[in-house]
Amino acid sequence: MAAHGWSTTGYLTVARAAGRLCVRIQPNGKKLFYFRASGAAGRQSLPLGEYQQSGRGA
After folding, report:
1. CA-CA distance, 33 to 16, in Å (whole number)?
2. What tens digit of pLDDT does each residue of 2-52 get?
3. Considering the entire predicted model, what is its pTM?
4. Contact criterion met (CB below 8 Å) for 20 and 10
5. Which domain holds residue 26?
6. How many domains does the chain have?
């Protein structure tokens, strides 16, 4: 995988009304987690937060 882009929990096609956990890795190394879902309204991304090696709220 490149130094930036999307990575998901698998390579399988996601059915409608289903979702998956994704991480977006930015060129600076920052890792942002999202829940991405497909439904009647199309694809939607719900940001969950940034990865912090030191833990939550640090």
Report:
1. 21
2. 445 555 555 445 555 678 888 888 899 899 999 888 777 777 888 999 988
3. 0.60
4. yes
5. 5-10+17-50
6. 1
User: CA-based angle 54:34:38, to the nearest 5?
Assistant: 165
Does residue 42 fall inside a structural domain? yes
The Cα-based distances of 21 to 1, 14, 30, 58 in angstroms read 17, 11, 16, 23
Let me know if residue 58 belongs to a domain: no
According to the model, what pLDDT value does residue 6 have?
59
Angular region, 9: left φ>0, alpha ψ -120 to 50, beta rest = alpha
Query: Is 44 part of any domain?
Result: yes
Residue 22 covered by a domain: yes
Amino acid at 41: A
